[in-house]
Design brief:
The protein has 4 helices and no strands. It is an all-alpha fold and 99 residues long. It folds into 2 domains: 1-41, no CATH class; 42-87. The longest helix has 15 residues, at 26-40. It is elongated. It starts with a helix and ends in an 18-residue tail after the last helix.
Length: 99
Amino acid sequence: MKYDKEEKAIIDAYEKGKMKLSSPSKKEFEAIKATARKTIIKDKRITIRLYDHDYQGIQKKAMEMGMPYQTLISGIIHRYIEGDLISKRGEHSNQPDAE
């Protein structure tokens, strides 16, 4: 696993005994559990129409990754919303190409 500078500094400090791990308080632990519950609960159901070619393609990709295709679609949407996936400039968007 590759670490960035900040992560390396934290690991080095921990290994040299300059930093200690602490357990979360009961209140912090409950907050962590509540956040985890909200993260895994999918409470909205939608229906979308896809081109057959796209449907077949997403099923194939999901099978290669060993997951249900709905999970893959949901993950793609989530990553896009979070900014981890971006569209190519100039392709399928109204944004002009960067010059």
